[in-house]
Structure formats: structure tokens, C-alpha cells
């Protein structure tokens, strides 16, 4: 099932000092857009996977692909280290609070996510049901923006997105030893996709316990998918926040000649919180096909499901990535 990966090994290497971040690009205006009255949150898997079809128009997506094609994306290593999911794609990460705010405020995202469109309420109030769904009161998007491009034969193997919920509720010593013993005495069980972590996630249970130098990223500060999700939004005054849901916006799909590249979730293995590598009978994978302009929201952290980005067989898959932020 999907691409195979290696399990997480223990290392005592120290983090390296981060390099200066990549400067944010000068984005085009996010226009034209479809009226919010024509958009909805569509649930594909209860409390786990939600899509917004046509968040971006095909015209806007074409403009963005042309714009992003000029940026200096970097190709990932084809030889992941221990504990890394197999990933082959081109990517770029930068901090861009202005674009995150534009994406949140000028599109339908804010109104759909907070439910203000249904209440005819321009304020920031959010219902208890939505707070429960999103993991708190959503206050914006993560200013750390990632750009992904997958060409033919490129993919992202099965992985879990672990975040600082692990720091807040860390695994016990016995759980850590259990993972390590599996790696030492039963390594084949770690190669069948039964315990895979994202190569770009930090799950430090104590400083320096897990090595975070991976996938050709020479510095921890160059890690574009760091799921250590406690952040401070650069508002006035600054807003302590944490990320709870991943936001992916697909700019290409079958309509643009991209074949493959589906994002596939495996609820039969349960969430990261309960993950044991054992399947639950009667539960089927959820495959989300690419659609031009569609936004995909899915949980990360301890509630994340095992998932993968299937191989692209033709064309290019372009994705803009951010995260929903809730107040701390």
C-alpha cells in the first residue's frame, strides 16, 4: 500500500543554527474569485477531511502557476534518512504574513471557516461547534507558506504529521523504547508503512533527542514543513497561536493535464494519537483527487491520519500550503 518508508531512529545530534529565511515573493492579487455564496465546506470524512471546491478560479490558478514557476524551488533528496517518509518533489518555504493575511481575508476562507457567512456576522465570533471542529477559535493562517511542485514520477510517501501536541502530551518512556526496539529487532515492520513520520516534522520530546537534520535540509531553520505548531502571529499586539489543520490549495489537476497525485488518507489505521500499525476492518481509504482551485483541509498533530501524495504520472501538480491557526 503506497510507498514504503523507514521508521524513526533516535539521535542525540544538536540543532544547527538557522540560516536567514528565503524572502517572500511579490504575489499577484488573488483575483478573480467566485462569490462566497457559491462556496461551501464539504466534509469528506467527519472531523478529519474537508474540501472547498473552486476556492480559486481556474484563471487565478493559471496566473499563480506562471508566477510560482519563476521561483527558485529546490528538489528533495531521493534518499531519505531513517525516520523520513519517502518524498520526491520540488518545494520552497518562506515566511509571508502579508500573503497569509491576504489569503485569509480576501478569499472565502475566513467566512467559511468561522461560519460568519451563515450568521451574516462580519465579526470574529465563532460557534462552539466550529471551535470544537478546528481545535479552538481560528484567528488566521500560518504565515509560513510552502510551495510544492510534483512532476512525473514524483510523490510523497505515507506519513503522519506530528506536532507540538506531542510536546504537550509526550509519549511515555515505554512508548519511546517500544518504537526503538521495533527499529532494532524488527526493522521490517518499520518498512511496510506501518509507522511512518513526515521527514519535515519535529517531534522533540527533549532537546536534541531526535535528529532533525534530514532530507538534504542542511539546517533546522530551512525546514519547510516543521509541524512544531506553537507560533506567534505577527499581529498588533502579537497573537499566540497554534496550528491544528493543514491547508492545501491545488492549482492544477486533470483539467490542466495533471494525472495522478491524489492525496490518500488511511483512516483504517486510526489517528496518530492511537497509531499502532493495525488496520480496522471495514474502513476504506479516502482518496482526494486533484481539482483546479480546490482547497483541502485535514487535521495534523495527534489527530492526523496516515496519508500520502500518490505519484504524478503526467503533467505537474502545484500546491500552496499553509495551516489554520487557533488562539492559545
From TrEMBL:
<feature type="domain" description="Prolyl 4-hydroxylase alpha subunit">
    <location>
        <begin position="47"/>
        <end position="325"/>
    </location>
</feature>
<feature type="region of interest" description="Disordered">
    <location>
        <begin position="211"/>
        <end position="236"/>
    </location>
</feature>
<keyword id="KW-0223">Dioxygenase</keyword>
<keyword id="KW-0479">Metal-binding</keyword>
<feature type="compositionally biased region" description="Acidic residues">
    <location>
        <begin position="218"/>
        <end position="228"/>
    </location>
</feature>
<keyword id="KW-0560">Oxidoreductase</keyword>
<protein>
    <recommendedName>
        <fullName>Prolyl 4-hydroxylase alpha subunit domain-containing protein</fullName>
    </recommendedName>
</protein>
<dbReference type="InterPro" id="IPR045054">
    <property type="entry name" value="P4HA-like"/>
</dbReference>
<feature type="region of interest" description="Disordered">
    <location>
        <begin position="1"/>
        <end position="26"/>
    </location>
</feature>
<dbReference type="InterPro" id="IPR006620">
    <property type="entry name" value="Pro_4_hyd_alph"/>
</dbReference>
<keyword id="KW-0408">Iron</keyword>
Amino acid at each position: 500500500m503506497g510507498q514504503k518508508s523507514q521508521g524513526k531512529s533516535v539521535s542525540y545530534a544538536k540543532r544547527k543554527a538557522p540560516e536567514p529565511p528565503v524572502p517572500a515573493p511579490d504575489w499577484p492579487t488573488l483575483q478573480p474569485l467566485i462569490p462566497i455564496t457559491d462556496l461551501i465546506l464539504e466534509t469528506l470524512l467527519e472531523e478529519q477531511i474537508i474540501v472547498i471546491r473552486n476556492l480559486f478560479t481556474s484563471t487565478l490558478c493559471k496566473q499563480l502557476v506562471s508566477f510560482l514557476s519563476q521561483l527558485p524551488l529546490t528538489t528533495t533528496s531521493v534518499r531519505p534518512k531513517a525516520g523520513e517518509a519517502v518524498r520526491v518533489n520540488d518545494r520552497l518555504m518562506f515566511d509571508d504574513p502579508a500573503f497569509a493575511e491576504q489569503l485569509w481575508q480576501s478569499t472565502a476562507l475566513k467566512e467559511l471557516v468561522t461560519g460568519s457567512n451563515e450568521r451574516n456576522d462580519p465579526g470574529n465570533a465563532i460557534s462552539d461547534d466550529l471551535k470544537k471542529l478546528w481545535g479552538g477559535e481560528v484567528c488566521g493562517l500560518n504565515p509560513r507558506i510552502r510551495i510544492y511542485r510534483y512532476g512525473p514520477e514524483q510523490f510523497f510517501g505515507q506519513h503522519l504529521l506530528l506536532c507540538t501536541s506531542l510536546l504537550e502530551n509526550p509519549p511515555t518512556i515505554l512508548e519511546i523504547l517500544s518504537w526503538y526496539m521495533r527499529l532494532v529487532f524488527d526493522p521490517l515492520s518499520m518498512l511496510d508503512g506501518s509507522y511512518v513520520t513526515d521527514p519535515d516534522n519535529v517531534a522533540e520530546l527533549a532537546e536534541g533527542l531526535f535528529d532533525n537534520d534530514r532530507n538534504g535540509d542542511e539546517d533546522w531553520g530551512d525546514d519547510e514543513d516543521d509541524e512544531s505548531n506553537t507560533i506567534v502571529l505577527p499581529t498588533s499586539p502579537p497573537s499566540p497561536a497554534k496550528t491544528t489543520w493543514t491547508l492545501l490549495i491545488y492549482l492544477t489537476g486533470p483539467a490542466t493535464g495533471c494525472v495522478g497525485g491524489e492525496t490518500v488518507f488511511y483512516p483504517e489505521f486510526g489517528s496518530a494519537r492511537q497509531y499502532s500499525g493495525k488496520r480496522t476492518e471495514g474502513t476504506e481509504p479516502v482518496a482526494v483527487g486533484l481539482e483546479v482551485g480546490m482547497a483541502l483541509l485535514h487535521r495534523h498533530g495527534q489527530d492526523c491520519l496516515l496519508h500520502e501524495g500518490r505519484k504524478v504520472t503526467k503533467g505537474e501538480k502545484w500546491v500552496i500550503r499553509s495551516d489554520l491557526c487557533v488562539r492559545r
